[in-house]
Design a protein that fits this description.
The protein is of the alpha+beta class and 397 residues long. It has helices spanning 17-28, 59-66, 81-89, 98-105, 107-117, 130-140, 164-174, 228-245, 278-281, 286-294, 321-324, 327-339, 368-384; strands at 10-13, 34-37, 50-53, 71-74, 124-127, 144-147, 158-161, 177-181, 187-195, 201-203, 207-212, 215-221, 249-257, 262-268, 308-315, 343-347, 357-365. Helix 1 links the parallel strand 1 (10-13) and strand 2. The structure holds adenosine-5'-triphosphate (ATP) and magnesium ion. The site of magnesium ion has 3 residues, from strand 14.
Amino acid sequence: MHPATGLPVVAMVGGGQLSRMTHQAAVALGQSLRVLATGSTESAALVAADVQLGDHRDLDALLRLAEGATVLTFDHEHVPTGHLQTLVDAGHRVAPGPGALVHAQDKLVLRRALAAAGEPQPAWAEVADADAVAAFAGRTGWPVVLKTPRGGYDGRGVFVVHDREQAEALVGQHGTLLAEERVAMVRELAVQVARSPFGQVALWPVVQTVQRDGVCNEVLVPAPDLDEDLSAAAQELAIRIADRLGVVGLLAVELFQTEQGVLVNELAMRPHNSGHWSIEGARTSQFEQHLRAVLDYPLGSTAMTAPVVVMANVLGGDAAEDDWAGPVLDERVHHFMAHWPDVKLHWYGKGQRRGRKLGHVTALGTDLAEVRARAVAAARYLADGVVDPAFAFPDGH
Ligand SMILES: Nc1ncnc2c1ncn2[C@@H]1O[C@H](COP(=O)(O)OP(=O)(O)OP(=O)(O)O)[C@@H](O)[C@H]1O
Ligand SMILES: [Mg+2]
C-alpha cells in the first residue's frame, strides 16, 4: 500500500511500452506504477515516478522490486520461472503466478498442456536433431516452422525451414526446438480475456491481427465477418484456458483461423499488442483491466465505444537515428495532428530503429474500409513521412 494515498502499489517487471501504458491507466486509479527497467530511457522509465533500474534475470533486483508492493506483474515473459517461484515462496504476490506464466514463457510447455486438455492446436513435435525434424516433415510436409521454446518475440525465434539442411543448422545453433506444421490459415485472430483471483472473467470482442514478417501491423476490431459461432467458440476457448491455467491478469490467446475452425498459436499473459485498440475503443482498456485483475478488483465493462476500431502500429522505417530525432519528428507529429484530428496517437518515446514498434494509432468509426485506411495512412505517415495519395495533404505536405 502507498503510504500517502492508501492505495495499492503494483510493481511491473519491464519498462517497455506495455508498462508505460499500464502506468497511464494506473494514474486514473489513483496509483503510480512501480517499474523495473533496464535503463533510464526505456519507455516506462521516462514517465513513471517509481522506477528501479535492474535486470529481470537478477533475483535481488526482483526482490527489491517486490518489497512493499501489493502485487508484482509483467510487461514481458522473460523472467526466469525459478525466480518467480522464489518470490512466491518469500510471500510476495505474483500475478500471473509462475505455474500459469510458464505457459506463455515456454512454447513446448504450452503445446503439452493444450494437448493434455484436448484443445485445438497445430500439429507439433519436440525436436532435438535434424532426423526428428525430417520425421515430423514426413507427416506434415515441408516447410516446417521451427521455434525456440523460450525468449522469442516479434517473430524472432520463428523460422520457416524448407529442408533437412536448414533444420540441421538451426538445431545445431539452438538445441531443442518446437516443430509445427505450417498452418494453411485464413487469417490470424486474437482473444483478450482478463481473469481475477476471485475468478471473474471479462472478454473483449475477438479481433483480427495482421502480421507482416512476423510482426503485428494492424488490429481490426471486431474481426470482420467472423461467424458468430466461431467467435463464441474462440471466446469460450480463451476462458477455458484462463480458468484451467489459473491465469490472473490479462491473457491474450493468439489464434490461427483455418477452414475448420481455430487453432491456438501462443499465449501472452499481460497486456498485448492485440489489445491496444481498447484504450479508446472500449469502456475499459486492457491496461486498466490488467490492474483491476491483478488487484482482485471487480472488472470493468468491455463494451466497445464505436462499431469499428482499427489500431495500426508505427514501425521504424529506414530513417537514420539522427534524421529522426528533434525537429523532423516534432514536425511530423504536427502534420499528423493537423491531418488526422480524429486519429489518436500513442507515442512510446523510443529511438528510431528499423522494424521497432515506436508507437501506435487508433481510429474509430463505422465503416471498416474507411477506418482502416485512415489508421494505416496515419501510422505510415508517422513512420516514414510518406503520405498515401488518397490522404494527400491539401497544401502539398
Ligand atoms: N505454425 C505456423 N504456421 C504458420 N505461420 C506461423 C506458425 N507459427 C507462427 N507463424 C507466424 O509467425 C508469427 C509469429 O509467431 P509466434 O507468435 O509463435 O512468435 P513470437 O515471436 O513469439 O510472436 P509475438 O510477435 O507474438 O511475440 C505468427 O503470428 C504467424 O504469423
Ligand atoms: Mg505471437
